[in-house]
Every structure is written in structure tokens, then in C-alpha cells.
Structure to design on (72 residues):
């Protein structure tokens, strides 16, 4: 487990609580949030592996910039 994987456990606990307490929309949103968190954590792991292998680092997220604000 990496230093950021704990957040996936927290999100799962929150989803369980939401489902058990009739908060269906929140539970669905937490599913989406979990997918985004997993993608970003995976991206960080890939970047770290690339750097260890001497490959050039890519700037940005392979998750397509999800969750990032863009300005015109």
C-alpha cells in the first residue's frame, strides 16, 4: 500500500455509511470519487516507476486532468 491508498478505504467507508443511511445520491457520487482517486493514485505510481527506470517524466495527469480547473 502506498502513502495515498488509504483514501480509497476512507471513501469505501463513507459509501457504506451513505448507503446504510439512505443517502443514495451521495453513495453514487462516492463511487465516482473513488474511480477518480484510484486513477490519480495509479497515475502517480506510474510516474514514480517511470522516474525509477530513467524514463522522462510527463507533466500532468494521465487521468485527463479530471478534477482540475481550467480557465479560458
Amino acid at each position: 500500500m502506498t502513502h495515498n491508498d488509504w483514501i480509497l478505504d476512507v471513501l469505501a467507508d463513507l459509501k457504506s455509511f451513505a448507503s446504510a443511511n439512505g443517502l443514495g445520491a451521495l453513495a453514487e457520487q462516492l463511487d465516482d470519487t473513488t474511480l477518480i482517486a484510484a486513477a490519480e493514485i495509479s497515475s502517480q505510481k506510474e510516474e514514480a516507476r517511470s522516474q525509477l527506470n530513467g524514463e522522462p517524466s510527463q507533466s500532468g495527469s494521465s487521468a485527463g486532468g479530471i478534477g482540475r480547473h481550467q480557465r479560458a
